[in-house]
Amino acid sequence: MAVKIKFAGPGTRAAAGQFLSSRKFLLALGAVAAAGCLLFACVFGFYYAKYRHIVDQRLDKPLFANTAKIYAAPTELRPGQKYTARYIAQQLRDAGYSIEGEGKASALGTYSANEESITIHPGPQSFHAPDAATVTFDRGAISQITGANGQALEAYELEPLLVTDLSDQSRAKRRLVTYDELPKTLVEAVTSIEDKRYFEHGGVDYYSIVAWTWHDLRGDRRFAGGASTLTMQLAKMFFLSPERTFKRKFLQIVITFQLEHRFSKQKIFEIYANQVPLGQRGSFSINGFGEAAQAYFGKDVQQLSLPECALLAGLIQSPSRLNPYRHLERATNRRNVVLDAMVETGDITKEQAEAAKATPVKLVPGAVDAGEAPYFVDLVREQLASRLGDNDYNQEGLRIYTSLDPELQRAASEAVAAEMKNVDERVEKLHARRVKAGDDTPIVYPQVALIALNPHTGEVLALVGGRNYGASQFNHAVSHRPTGSIFKPFVYAAAFNTSLAGAQLTNQDGASAVFTPVTVLNDEQTTFTFAGNQTYSPKDFEGKYFGEVTAREALERSLNNATISLAEMVGYNNVASLARDAGITSARGTPAMAIGAYDATPLQMAGAYTVFANGGVRIDPWMLSSVRTPNGDPIADYTPVTKPVLDPRAAFLTTALMEDVVNHGTGFKVRAMGFRAPAAGKTGTSHDAWFAGFTSNLICVVWVGNDDYSDIKMEGADAAAPIWADFMKRAVELPEYSDTKDFVPPQGVVQVSLDKTTNLLADASCPVDYTATFLDGTQPTDTCDHSNGDQRNLFQRIFGLGEKPASPGPVPTTQAAPQPVQPSMPAQGTTATAQQQPPPPEAAPKKKPGFFKRLFGGGKKDEDGDQQTKQPAPQPEPQ
Q1: SS3 of residue 625 by DSSP
Q2: Phi, psi torsion values for 162, nearest 5 degrees
Q3: What b-and-e string marks burial along 66-96, b requiring 16 or more CB atoms within 10 Å of the CB?
Q4: 3-state class (DSSP) for residue 617
Q5: CA 326 to chain centre
Q6: What is the largest CA-CA distance in the chain?
Q7: Residue 750 CB coordination number (10 Å)
Q8: What is the pLDDT of residues 379-432, one digit of tens each?
Q9: Are 81 and 140 in contact (CB under 8 A)?
């Protein structure tokens, strides 16, 4: 049978060729893929080995700097204070105490409480000795404090509260927490919105990568996010830059595998919880949930509620854009997205989510920066570096105990913020007037500083160093500025010092007498000669002069010429010596010194005023109390430096004059604003505005001025005194400062009623009187109805004819001169009696007012007179 053989045609041969070509292509493709995989494996292996060494080096060291912790001063409890058991229990919890019998006892201490009492047991790591006490309450106030042995206590101090951690070198703040300290709700909130399968995947969630890609293609993604897991985010935070490149993403995965291999999921989450950035506070970044809980809610992280946990978890996406202080609505919407995500993952029910969404966001009131006293903390940091002499002190977790009172600090910050708005309004009005007059000088908003001290201990209780720490960290509380008229009380104190020694001051007319509040001073425009042939011609405020005035009135009105004339009688060097002893180290014996031409810092002036408020004893202001180890063992304790400067009688006599300044003089704005507690103080106006004053338990100094030293064109009474009054009104509302008392005169000081017209003892015939304070034995003895009044007629008084009676003043006595207890010593080469000082040369006679000025010379107006003539400043005398 014949067989047919059919040969393949051209088409069949082409198909076979294509198959062979496809096979070769696939083989080539497979070879390329294999080579690619091999290359990837080599590259991955290379970088894995390289970064394993880098990661190991980084993780062999502590992950976070164990920064020093700053603690406030302990709150002192006293019977009569308006505290409740619930409030004190909260204070103890905030300080780290635990409830007695519930769980593990805190090393800091424990407490037990009911509605009527609270018993406190300090632990081994407490700041205080382990002495227990029971505080009993009645009608909303402390009725009794008893020790463990049943003995009644006058006072008891609570555990100091943590203020803040010192920032690290990157100006980041964090409060370290462990995984076990994190609320379960916070862990669920973070994983639900950032990494749903965190506890299931091995560092890279391939399922989520595919899912995110699919939803992106379909455009139905419910929640904004990415494929990065928490471990990948952590790898980027610790080891990589934020740039978006393929290489960075590749390295991120490499490091992620290493972290997952090295740590448990709980440990990775703990590290993440302490590192994640959650916002900015001034110039500091907020890192970690521990710091954020305190920053935004004023709570320990363990106390966070469900809506608060959701809000913090929501901030991770974009802390700046979602900052609840600036963008509350955005932050709230993001919180609600987190709550919906938690419902989807089954962590909470829909009902719980809806209840949490209905909860308003309650942030810590006011600026968080203010509550932590950043300017105060900066000064503490400087003192630590200076005293410990170790740059690594901030890596050792030290406990730093300070003098800060957080409640008073908050009052200071709020007062500054409120009253500087009024200052700004005045600045804007003044600027508008200048612009209208053709002056195009840019507007300058003044800076501010406020210092509050305990006058009897020197503790710096509150400190504001500027308007906004985030904008400028320059601390104006320690910036040197001319003191203006808040220096003047030291002139009058030096004059009272002479009275203690029985010395008499001699005026320009040659009359001599012991100095008292009614000593008559000359307030006429005068050219003062000093240091041989130098001259100084100051002006009074607005060019108004009052002729003969009492010392009391001269300080009330802040009269420049009268004050300098007194300093001349006392001796410029004697005044300067007293001022330097009080802490105003720049003071030199010149006429300009008497009206505050030399500079000092607001902190120095607060320390100087302790001389008046503390019975003549100066106490150096201090902030640093104790440095201790993390376990509470003392490393260094610091005690304040004290120095007797004035006799208590001279201090009180000067204080009495400053009370008149507040009640009747340039400081009356304090009373006009509603501050009613007993107080003494002094305004100051030069190019800056000042107010320095005190009560029985607080000293406060306020400064307002421009950084460029230009004139703010405002008086101390208008710019600084309102801030002082606002702060003090807030302070006396606090339990610790509510018990202000009258200033108590020491033995050897008497208070008498004087007639306003004659400045002699008031009786029934002279009903218009006032109270004045004298060194015993120097007070007037004549009464107003027996005074040798001016018997000349009007014509004689106008033209200066006839015999003018002696000016009213202290009557010389035959009693022995009062002896000083601890008066300030006069400067070498000077005496306290002006009779022994050479009179000014005739070539520079003191100028007298003209006829009409004598006749019509000046009505009363409480103004601060600190303006000075524009002439070369006097040269300080050599020491």
Answers
A1: strand
A2: -70, 125
A3: ebbbbbbbbbebebebebebeebbebbebbb
A4: strand
A5: 23
A6: 176
A7: 13
A8: 988 888 788 765 556 556 788 899 999 899 999 999 999 999 999 999 999 888
A9: no
